[in-house]
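Lecture 7 notes: from sequence to structure.

We start with a single chain of 268 residues. Read the sequence below before looking at the structure.
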Amino acid sequence: MQGGHVPAHLTRFHGLLLATGLAIGLITVNVAGVTRWIWLSGVCLAAGTCLGLGVSFPSWRMFGNPLCRVDTKRRVVALTFDDGPDPDNTPALLELLARHGVHATFFCVGARVGERAALAKRIVTEGHQLENHSHDHNPWTNVFGMARLHDDLTRAQETVREATGYVPRFFRPPMGLTNQRVYRVAKELGLTVTGYSARGLDRRPDTPEAIAGRLLHRLKPGAILLLHDYGVPRERLLAVVAIALDRLKAEGYECVRLDDLAKDGPWQ
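Now the structure, written as tokens:
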């Protein structure tokens, strides 16, 4: 699989630590009095801001090399859905995708897969891809220690395997938050950390047209598009996806599974 994981000693996180340490050292040696504390505060604020953005946005590649977009000339995109499966939304979504002849990628929560094993099996049987989105989708996943994070992802892997016979190869962290531990555990389990290049922000109470517009804004080949099939109104979800698929078709784009897209070129 192209892209892979950047070794820990080459991450931007370590570069940020080194740059911050050097800046603090230079300021401490060369600046005195109140001015020193002003400069030190500024450096710490800048470093903290960069770190926070790196945690929140995988595309910053602060801790590794996630799959956020593929550099390809083919007009292909991957349509991905998070947080399901949902007993009301997902079946209707599957029917819509089937009518359009489109295959998508579902990043599913392990506990929900366990509760809806037949629905998870249907996702895979109908040709879609079902990947790891953690077992419990805990809002504190990003502060889990190595052991707990490893257990959570492993449980999701096993639950998906038992329900579908498929072992996930991609992992999208809950809420897209990453850190060094996320990359280390993912690598241990043979998972590729996955982000996105565009998202519809479909939890906002906006019109389907507005959500689809955000999703497809500045669309480029190789894009990874993020929506949700859980926690959103069904009719709005279906309307958003229908609008997006029509626009993609009109612009000559084809929706492919994430594993197919990942092989199409180097990652960005």
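Residues 1-8 have pLDDT under 50 and may be disordered. Keep this in mind for problem set 3.
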